[in-house]
Backbone:
């Protein structure tokens, strides 16, 4: 699985870490796994680290998959997205446009800035 996750209840923080190629199908599998494994649908803070991965889909596929989804599909209302590639940054900025108005997303290149925006403490090992 190119995206793994961990939930930290004490910080109400869900962390995703991607590696390699990430497809729309894998994103859907991740959503299903989180629900099946009992991750709360109302996580306050989500941090997704995609700096060691790349998106294996185009904007049309992303739009078709994301448009019209409910807030509960996003495991929280405040998302910090870490990306390294300008192409992936552009994809994340377009993705924001298709989300419910209650879901906030900001894109970062440095973990410290992402954690500061979320208002959550960065702990050693979070992104390993």
Residues:
């Amino acid at each position: 699985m190119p995206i793994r996750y961990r939930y930290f209840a004490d910080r109400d923080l869900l962390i995703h870490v991607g590696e390699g190629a990430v497809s729309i199908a894998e994103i859907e599998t991740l959503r299903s796994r989180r629900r099946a494994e009992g991750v709360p649908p109302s996580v306050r803070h989500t941090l997704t680290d995609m700096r060691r991965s790349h998106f294996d889909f185009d904007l049309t596929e992303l739009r078709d998959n994301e448009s019209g989804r409910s807030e509960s599909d996003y495991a929280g209302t405040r998302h910090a997205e870490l990306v390294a590639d300008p192409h992936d940054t552009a994809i994340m900025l377009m993705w924001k446009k298709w989300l419910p108005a209650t879901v906030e997303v900001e894109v970062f290149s440095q973990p410290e800035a992402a954690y500061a925006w979320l208002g959550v403490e960065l702990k050693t090992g979070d992104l390993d």
Summary: The domain at 3-118 is CATH 3.30.750.24 (Transcription Regulator spoIIAA).
